[in-house]
Write a structure and sequence with these properties.
four-stranded antiparallel beta sheet, single chain, binds pyridoxal-5'-phosphate, 2 domains, alpha/beta, 14 strands, Aspartate Aminotransferase, domain 2
Length: about 375
């Protein structure tokens, strides 16, 4: 199997550590080990523990803590992975093969664009529509999710729009998956990063066709430890574990320990709260900045997540615009084309105030 280039990830890997201002990031400003030690992480234990392999599907303690988050689960419903991306990847490896149908919403993070195609799946898309407050185009959805469909992917809250599906939309998606005999893969890595709306409801528990992936990288602000998880029916999770054995074997032992601290209820809420304060401030800064751009720009303020998705009216392709901004201003943002929707630009709202302000000032210098 030869996986296609994941365009956004490749662009980020190439430039994010080279530019002066990286607004292509996507999570809440990361926390430090010191902050985690103040939440109970035992650094002395970390210094003394032999660096063995960890339990390959996640330590029972971590899976026990996760089971406390998802009603009706036991530790056998979880596979702990190296990031949410590995959780998505293992799910795709488990369920997709030559000729089966795979449907995903666009715009999206697009990891599960190249991977399903490389596995031989027939990929269909359905649009989220800005003019419908980023709800799905239902006619396209029903065409894309059909009796051939094995797996449907949504990210909710959505990367890049920051939208959150309404309860009615969630229900409709799940029922269609049930009717078509498809699994729904709900990537909920942004759950908890609500800016001023109530906590996003999880798809978990709506049907036995639902699989949820998530992790520490976005709402928790801990991308560097690379911890994610799959929550799903036990048999399916066991199959994902089988795939895991041949990919990375296990999560890192220190990372599992960090995750055990981070997912404790009081710490999780503290991390979410930290993110919310920062995102509220940055969304205000971004909204004021857009207002200052004048005609030809529009965006729906994100409800959740650390991103803003800006529509522009100029015919310049988004990749060309992003390259111009990077070259002339040493500032990186994400072109809409990498997210499945041309005519848009994606900005990171999860960082420090001064960093965001200077990055935006530079971007404005180059906008048409
Ligand atoms: C929707 C979505 N899923 C998964 C990932 C990857 O997350 P992780 O860093 O946990 O692998 C990202 C990263 O941007 C994302 O936006």
């Amino acid at each position: 199997m030869k996986i296609e280039v994941f365009e956004m990830e490749r662009m980020q890997s190439t430039w994010e550590n080279v530019v002066d201002f990286d607004l292509s990031e996507s999570g809440v400003l990361p926390v430090s080990l010191r902050e985690l030690s103040e939440m109970g992480l035992d650094l002395e234990w970390a210094l003394n523990t032999p660096l063995t392999y960890s339990q390959s599907n996640g330590t029972p303690e971590l899976r026990e803590a996760l089971a406390g988050i998802y009603p009706g689960t036991t530790i056998d419903n979880f596979e702990v992975t190296n990031g949410t991306s590995e959780a998505n990847y293992l799910t795709a490896l488990t369920l997709l093969q030559d000729g089966v149908g795979f449907a995903l919403e666009v715009p999206n993070y697009m990891q599960l664009w190249g991977v399903p195609r490389s596995l031989g799946a027939e990929v269909s898309t359905f649009r989220l529509r800005q003019d419908e407050n980023w709800e799905p185009d239902w006619a396209e959805f029903e065409r894309a999710v059909n009796p051939q469909t094995r797996l449907v992917y949504v990210s909710n809250p959505n990367n890049p729009t920051g939208s959150v599906l309404s309860p009615g939309a969630m229900e409709r998606i799940v029922r269609r998956c049930e009717e078509m005999g498809a699994y729904l893969l709900a990537d909920e890595v942004y759950l908890g990063a609500e800016i001023d709306c109530p906590r996003t409801p999880s798809f978990w528990g709506m049907s036995d066709r639902v699989i949820v992936t998530s992790g520490l990288s976005k709402a928790y602000g801990i991308p560097g430890v690379r911890i994610g998880w799959i929550v799903g029916p036990t048999e399916l999770v066991r199959e994902c574990w089988t795939q895991h054995d041949s990919v990375t074997i296990c999560p890192n032992k220190l990372s599992d320990a960090v995750a055990r601290i981070a997912v404790k209820t009081e710490n999780r809420e503290r991390l979410y709260q930290r993110g919310r304060a920062l995102l509220q401030r940055n969304r205000r800064i971004f909204t004021d900045w857009v207002a200052g751009l004048g005609e030809g720009y529009s965006f729906i303020p994100p409800k959740a997540g650390a991103l803003a998705f800006l529509k522009y009216s100029s015919p310049i392709p988004s990749l060309e615009l992003v390259e111009r901004i990077r070259t002339n201003q040493s500032t990186l943002i994400v072109p809409g084309i990498h997210l499945g929707l041309e005519g848009y630009l994606r900005f990171w709202l999860g960082g420090e105030q001064a960093y965001l302000e200077e990055g935006l000032r530079r971007v404005a210098e180059e906008l048409p």
